[in-house]
Design goal:
Chain A is of the alpha+beta class. Chain A has helices at about 5-30, 35-65, 70-105, 110-115; strands spanning about 115-125, 135, 150, 155-165, 170, 180-185, 190-195, 200-205, 215-220, 230-240, 245-255, 265. The chains are: A alpha+beta, B mainly alpha.
Chain lengths: ~270, ~160
């Protein structure tokens, strides 16, 4: 006999509790909520996640302290050049921003996006290989709601999938369960963008003769009313036309490097 | 009880470390699962009931962090804890090769069971990702287990 009777009982009880927890969690998810077990475990883990995320900059600064003088001088020169370039760009942008504001005023458009962005730090990434999610340090206290759109300066990142008091979970565009409306910026051809659990996305439900080319920029279409229209998602890398099925599928490389993200913006009250 | 609490603390620390792993630490898109490695090592050295209990809590942590499939995480981690624990009785557990094989083999088993209930769209990529994860887990198991054996040996010497 491999196991003693007591051990068998413990193992059976644990399996039963696991299955019941899974069932309760599934029911809670179907009702659009988080289960008690999930909330309690997340609350217990939060301090550890935060502590580890705070340790990262320290490790980075220690690593940077042990560098040769030559590399510091070279970096300094490069930064000075970059600073000069950014100053020029900043001046040009200020002028463009002013023009943009004026045009919006004329068109009577509301500047909703600029006033409703909340900055957040990614404190932990998903522990599993099969889910592309991350935890940010802003929750319902910071005004974040489930379904809010998450982006950075380069483009769309994903959506808020769970909200706790002090933290929230983001589901990336690349997650296998992610699906949003998107279109080609140049030709306005629209389809559904689906995550594959890989580093690329698939733009589906396009017509077989759809006007789409390699390197076309893909933006959000605003369909469904969850993600605002016009946010950059990525570029077309591959196109597969299937005349027999009458469809076209395009592979999209996201504009944002999701693995290297540290800070993001949550767009509250997505339009 | 004391050793279980210690193991649980290590699982929580491993879990926090897992969330902060650098992006480059990947093989074929598969990243290591430090929580899983810690679970396997504890199960190999403490037996299947210990492994099942620790598997339950590590599955709960992973499921809560991901936000879905809590039940699948709990059950697959428990199965692996039991499997690794069984090796203790039937094989010589002080050999690091056992820990390495357990970590690699059980990663493939655990992810296989997990993917049966949660299929992914790209099968070829999923297989490569699982293999990458298994290789990295085996490497981490070798490192952790060697350190663990070294600590145990030092403890024994101090006692003598």
């Amino acid at each position: 006999m491999i196991f003693k009777q007591k051990s068998v009982l413990i193992i059976i009880a644990l399996f039963a509790v696991g299955i019941v927890l899974g069932r309760l969690h599934q029911n809670a998810r179907l009702a659009g909520n988080s289960s008690v077990a999930q909330k309690m475990t997340q609350a217990a883990m939060f301090p550890f996640d935060t502590a580890f995320s705070k340790g990262k900059p320290i490790a980075y600064s220690v690593e940077r302290s042990f560098r040769p003088r030559r590399s510091i001088i070279a970096e300094n020169k490069q930064l000075a050049k970059e600073n000069e370039k950014l100053r020029r760009e900043n001046a040009a942008l200020r002028k463009t921003s002013h023009e943009n504001r004026e045009l919006k005023r004329i068109l009577n458009l509301k500047e909703k996006t600029s006033g409703s962005l909340v900055a957040a730090e990614i404190i932990s990434r998903t522990p599993s290989n099969w889910f592309d999610t991350a935890l940010i340090n802003v929750g319902s206290k910071g005004g974040v709601k489930k379904g809010d759109c998450v982006l950075d300066d380069k483009g769309l990142i994903g959506q808020i999938s769970e909200v706790n008091t002090w933290n929230s979970q983001i589901i990336y565009l690349t997650d296998a369960s992610s699906s949003i409306g998107a279109m080609v910026e140049r030709s306005r051809v629209a389809g559904i963008l689906q995550g594959q659990g890989t580093d690329y996305l698939i733009l589906n439900y396009l017509h077989k003769d759809a006007d789409i080319k390699k390197n076309d920029t893909v933006i959000s279409s605003g369909m469904g009313g969850v993600i605002p229209k016009g946010i950059v998602i990525g570029k077309v890398t591959e196109i597969h036309r299937d005349p027999s099925a009458g469809t076209t599928i395009a592979h999209i490389k996201p504009a944002v490097k999701l693995d290297e993200l540290e800070y993001v913006f949550v767009m509250r009250e997505a339009q | 009880m004391k050793s279980f609490v210690k193991a649980l603390i290590f699982v929580i620390l491993a879990f926090s470390l897992q969330g902060s792993l650098p992006a480059w630490l990947k093989i074929w898109d598969g990243k290591p699962d430090i929580v899983f490695v810690v679970l396997i090592l504890y199960a190999v050295t403490n037996g299947s009931v210990f492994g099942a209990l620790l598997g339950f809590f590590s599955g709960l942590c992973c499921g809560a962090a991901v936000g879905s499939c809590i039940g699948t995480f709990v059950v697959t981690r428990m199965l692996c804890g039991i499997g690794a624990g069984l090796m203790r009785g039937s094989l010589f557990s002080d050999n690091p090769v056992i820990a390495v094989c357990a970590a690699g083999g059980l990663t493939i088993f655990c992810e296989g069971v997990f993917l049966l209930s949660n299929p992914m769209p790209n099968i070829a990529h999923t297989v490569m990702k699982t293999l990458g994860e298994a290789i990295l887990n085996a490497i981490f198991a070798l490192v952790f287990y060697t350190v663990f054996l070294h600590i145990q040996a030092r403890k024994k010497r101090t006692l003598i």
